[in-house]
Amino acid sequence: MRRLPPLSGLRAFEAAARHLSFKRAAQELHVTPTAISHQVRQLEEVIGVTLFERRTRQVLLTAEGQVLLPVLRDGFDSFARVVEGLSRRQRRATVTLSATPAFTAKWLVPRIAGFHNARPDIDLTLLATLEVVDLNSGAADLALRYGPGPYPDLSAEPLAIDRFAPVASPRLGLKKPADLHSATLLHFDWRRSDSGNPTWRRWLKIAGIDGIDARAGLRFSDETHAIQAAVAGTGVALHSLLLVSEELATKTLVVPFGPEIEGFTLHLVRGSRRPLTEAIEATQAWLRAQFAKSSPPR
């Protein structure tokens, strides 16, 4: 069992010895100089040695005090480092990023390991939802929103303008727009009613192709299911080149012909009334860098 002097006396001595001043030690420990003097005197009585040579308006360490100071100083420094490290673990930065389920699965998830490797100190949570999350309430810190905007009460930054084109499995052998007459169209149900939605009706009009029912084919409520159906060779989808970039790179999907049509802008948004932490800033910077190097292939 350890038999140690009172911790208050050891702290008072270490601070006074470091500053060679009872007054400055008192200021550091938020007590009075009289309390420092009293605690040091008690310590000297407990260990049976004199630690300070007291002079008028000055204190000097005795030989015994010079032996004790580095031991206590190094010990308290070690305690401080360990406690700070433990406290930092409890204060790990967290960032919640909201995006649609399709964008989360097809774009964010393949890249999330890179973010973790770059910033292992930030716990990033991906909130995959089609609902519009209230960013000013703290439900999420950031969101990727796809649309024309504006976004009232939010700080919005455009990241990319998406492009859409017909994509299909190379097994279908599609070569020219006329081949769509014998192909199954795959549709994704847009939740918003907007004439700018990149639909088959809009694409066929821009491409100048007649005689194809733009409503016929298979319809999906989830974008990822439409992508999977296209990969399986079920039909041809008019899809975001941003979301199918991996499939295009591996040739499981191809763009057999154009034209490409412009979709909406993908915005990075956050609550304007929420604090902008270093972790949020780092996540924003990472997203900007990822978009800068992953523009849809032409």
TrEMBL record:
An example Gene Ontology molecular-function term: sequence-specific DNA binding
Domain of life: Bacteria
Parts of the chain that traverse the membrane: none
GO biological processes: DNA-templated transcription
UniProt domain HTH lysR-type: residue ranges: 5-62
Protein keywords: DNA-binding, Transcription, Transcription regulation
SUPFAM superfamilies tied to this protein: Periplasmic binding protein-like II, Winged helix' DNA-binding domain
InterPro entries the record matches: LysR-type_TF_proteobact-type (IPR058163), LysR_HTH_N (IPR000847), LysR_subst-bd (IPR005119), WH-like_DNA-bd_sf (IPR036388), WH_DNA-bd_sf (IPR036390)
Function: NodD regulates the expression of the nodABCFE genes which encode other nodulation proteins. NodD is also a negative regulator of its own expression. Binds flavonoids as inducers.
Similarity comment: family membership: Belongs to the LysR transcriptional regulatory family.
Full protein name: LysR family transcriptional regulator
Organism: Bradyrhizobium icense
